[in-house]
Amino acid sequence: MHPLLARRGFLGSLLWGGSQLGLLGLLEADGQLRAGDQTAGGGEERQPHFRPRAKNLLVVFASGACSHLDSWDYKPELIKRDGQPMPGEGLITFQGENGNLTRSPYDFTPRGESGKMVSSLFPRLGDLADEICFLHAMTSRTNTHGPGENFMSTGFTLDGFPSLGAWVNYALGSENRDLPAFVSIPDPRGVPQSSLNNWSTGFLPAEFQGTPMNAQKPLRNLARPAGISVAEDEAVRAFLDEQNRRHATEFPGEDQLRARIASYELAARLQLSVPEIIDWTQEPQYLLDEYGANDSANPVKAGFARNCLVARRLIERGVRVVQLFNGAYAMGEGVGNWDGHKTLKAQYDIHGPILDQPLAALLTDMKRRGLLEETLVVWCTEFGRMPTFQKGASGRDHNPAGFTCWMMGAGVKRGFSYGATDEFGHKALEQVTTVYDFHATILHLLGLDHERLTYYHNGAQRRLTDVHGHVIREILA
Amino acid sequence: MVPRRQTQLNVEDSLRFFERGPKLALQSPLGNLWLSRLLYSLLAIVTSWTLIAQPLAAQAQATASPGIDFVREIAPLLSARCLQCHGPETAEGGVRLDRAENALAEADSGSRPIVPGDPAASHLLELVAGEEPEMPEGGPPLTAEEIERLRVWIASGADWPTGFVIEPRRELWSVQPLAVTEPVPASNPSEVLDRFVERKLFELGLQRSAPAAPQTLIRRLFLDVIGLPPSQQEVNEFVADPSDARYAQLVDRLLASPQYGERWGRHWLDVVRFAESNGFETNVERPSAYHYRDWVIEALNQDLPYNRFLALQIAGDQLGEDRATGFLVGGPWDQVKSPDPILTQNQRQDELADIVNTTGTAFFGLTLGCARCHHHKFDPTGTPPQRRAAVNSRENIDRFAPVTAKWIRFTCLQTNQAEPCLDELEVWALDEVPTAAGRPESPGAAKPWLNVGLVTCGAKASSSGDYPDRSKHRLEQVNDGRVGNDYSWISSESGKGWVEIELPAEQLISAVVWGRDRNQVYRDRTPIEYRIEVARQPGEWQTVATEADRLPFGGDAPAAVSEAVPPTAEWTALQRELEQLDQSIATLHRQITLAQSAYVGTFVSQPEPTKRLERGEVTAPQEVVGPGLPQLLGDLELPVDATDGERRLTLARWLETSAHPLLARVIVNRVWQFHFGQGLAGTPSDFGTKGVPPSHPDLLDWLAAELVARGWSLKAIHKLVLLSATYRQDNKPRSEALRLDAGNQWLWRFQPRRLESEAIRDAMLLASGELDLKPGGPGFSAFEPNDNYVRVYLPRETFGPNEFRRMIYMQKIRMEQDATFGTFDTPDAAQVCPVRSRSVTPLQALNLLNSPFVLGRAATLAGRLQAEAGDQAAAQIDAAYRLLFGRSATEPERIAAERLVAQYGLTALCRALLNSNEFLILP
After folding, report:
1. From residue B531, how far is each of A29, A390, B13 by CA, in Å?
2. CATH number of the domain that B253 lies in?
3. Which chain B residues contact residue A219 at CB under 8 A?
4. Which domain holds residue B881?
5. What are the pLDDT digits (tens) for B860-884?
6. Within this chain, do residues A107 and A28 fall inside the same structural domain, yes or no?
7. Is the ipTM of this structure higher than 0.90?
8. Which residues 277-296 in chain B show a CB within 8 A of chain A?
């Protein structure tokens, strides 16, 4: 039997892992089953090779390229040389010419016992500086948003590759039989720029796909349709089950038919569990206040706070990967996300509070509950922004040469900073960290070797990290 | 009407062109032709594929010797032509030519194959030379040049670097000549096929299942070949006469049906990752991309010879079928570029790698994607496909986020010809933020849109200069509420000019609507590049729209409401009628445009030189490389400076005439997979070293040979398969066979499988009586209309007859999925999909149980059953089972169904049955 299957058990594999047949098919597609050799499983490659430091993963994605220079990456030299031209040749970046070096409109102050300099954009997240492991020398391969999000979420700039969450789902499956193993929570304002490619299953089978839902929009087609009573719904399902079982007796041992029958039972369980788990109103008043979930003055912030509560509830119930988006594109450049080209201060004054209090509350809440013992939290964005303002504007252009992401929780150092950009925060200089390294490290913390987590597609054993990536050992706790 | 590639104006918004010359920031030093890279990358895949790297010292030593280079010139020759018999595994006659200690020593016969410095004494030369050379046995003789090369090398001392061992060339099975054997004489070709399968079954102690019951077989055949279940009458007729002759008739009929191409064509579209949007963040639609889909369907329906089918996709523009080149430009394309030339070139490189990889996998079953990095030779750089500024001469709506303005200026930067003309410049305001989709509310609504730019509203127009002839064209007409050429403004300057509207007071506005001639008599003088700016203070212009973000041609127009009068019932009714007419007109305009333009490739004529890029880096161009094919496929003998047309035409001719076994093997395997659910070779787009070798290599070769012998007729191969006993056998598992071969690799039964999303949706519509079999043309959308620059695809919540066509005509948006059926492993068209997964998930169950689409079909189906079977529940139930499953209900089924219907009605039963395994499985 395929080890993945053996480990997860028949029903477990059925839940989000498809049927046995599906897995056999998967092995065949994987090139591991050859003619006449159905029992020869090569599943070892997908077995975790070492004890995981984290069982769950929460990815917070600040969509639109959140400026490291106005948040986490303190550059005294940039403040000192505010208004001066940047040394070297004239910069031509995404939107065109750049103006002078410009200091952040937000002041940096030392935070926590570590004295980490964090800007006033994120006052409450700054409170948690001692818990965070900063990666200050991140780099990306692209300076456009779509490919940038693809790269951060799937390891490839092109569309159509499996997302980090799908890979982890494929490798580890679900801990909770009543919930999807991988849930994506889009921002209350809409989907991120690369939309569902961020939680795509790519060429992996559909069962590894992220399931999108949030506090605003529950899972599509989950609810019993209006106009159909509970009794009728149950009668229809009972009839269907009987019909299918009668049919299946003609096909003894046909796993696909059994899997389909089981999928309706699982669907019924989902119908019970998902509305319950997404129901943030069950949370006590003090927590709603702490997250800002009822902030009537700022409905977007309240919406994001509710999503944060949903994220915690999902992680708590053992959902393997939760992807929480902060920012959406549909409203235009910088309006609904971190893409501060034109008027950075005005836009970030809106976006900062939406992220700060709810996320800080979520992290604090998780810590209190001991969830950070087993959960790795990752904060990321697709790339950084320039130390200069764009010519004729008061905002920053795209900068894939250096930016900041951070991790927190299971398996990583607390109050630690790794890597550095140059004196202005333009280019990653020390301990340069690629997105591949970032992914390799995340997989490592989940007990997976990024070089061995592979899936055959179209002539290649594909990996999340392509042919790159090194685990950043220096940040492991 | 035969679509043409449009070069005139009014081209469709997303028409994509490959244009001559670098554009924008893409000042590539490396030239701008991509097809040479396609050919070149084909070359890149196999050069020195099999030559094993040796210690560097040995290579250095070898290259140091003058004259013939052993490592480069002799070792590959021996490897390819001699080592299969005279290598480490099979040292026939005691002769081994893989290492010096054997090759230079005495063989069993006493002779020495190679005597350094003495060609005359070297037995090897004696054997390979002459009129009828003895060696290589069973293969073509060495060429004169090869023999001379060997002779010179031996004469100069047969330098063999110390320790150098030549690895035998492992011949890739898929490129070998077809090995055609027929197991035993048989009365017809399908029987031959069965003999191949039986032989393997016999070896394993398995046997084929009994023939399937007629009800099962006909359902299988219909779902398989046309993707729709048979009608009750068709089932009855076949059950009454399930003879071979009758079955063969059915096969012929289905293969001749237009639905065949819609079913089998879907697979080809998967294989080439066809989609009708750009992908990436903007993911804008390509409204005229459907022509390629139509062509694929038509070509397969007409049974266009497969070699021709391939050739047209490479050079259809030169072979009379432009639509076929939709293949070349069908991939994802990122329209968001950056002035940073390196990053943009890398973007382009990714896109080109995708084109090459798709061609390689689809045509050759070779995964050329790897060549990009591993041979460091794939060097795509060049011009991105430029979006030609698209223009609607009739009416254009430029929406933007609501903005406060007192002045609105429309600046024309370029026209299709002559001085720009506007028949009206309208400034639209709404006293609240538009709806989420940014669409105007309908005019009957409480808060109608207003054109605040009208002179009657107190707005004033000014311009950069007016046309001297004022008989028809005057500035004051640009905001007088009248449209058409006779009431228009024309600029004084050719190609440019601006018009400004000053509002009486600041106003929140959110759209500017303009046209050249709403009556569509004139299409010249249309601004094709323009800028719309607004200002609150004089001179403080802010750009709110340009041609880059305008609506696609034929977009919905806000109805002409000029004033907020209290609507009367009559007014509302007329208005609604007007709206509908407007929409019909827009639709027709759109169709006219689409019918005469197609999303296909246009090409540069003389490509600039192609250069190798060191490690694939666009910043490290190396030597110039000419176009070619992978060595193992053949040689196109193209000069380095061949024109683009020559290159593609040469490749197309090669595809059509080479009869290369790889082409035939790959496609017959796809046919096999189409019918049996899994191919004889399990990696249908990878016949390379990483792919899975076929389970029945002899059968695959025989089928490939049949294809070539039958003039590359795919229908002939379908028929051969469909008539076989292997295909017609029963589908029930047998425990003893399951133990030996659970995966049915050896075909001891027909393996039932879950239908694909398309077949499920189509079958539901057929059952409910709503399926519209209209073929071809623009598709329908699964999403609400959306004009956002970065498209937001929100699934449709309601469905009407327009959406009831077959799912292959659902506009294929990259990465986005149909809300109900997308979870059934529908490919996202970002990457190629040679074989679909068949997963089973609870989300699928939820969608089929609760989605508005399925509930709607259940209700319609119930209505149909009532109409056809009368009021009696028993009759309705029996009709339901016959319609959905092609059989009567059994007694227990009837009892259960009657209970359900009695309590909850017929719709409840229909909802259940549309979810049933029997309905969703290809039996």
Report:
1. 52, 21, 17
2. 1.10.3130
3. 843, 846
4. 753-922
5. 999 999 999 999 999 999 999 999 9
6. no
7. no
8. 279-283
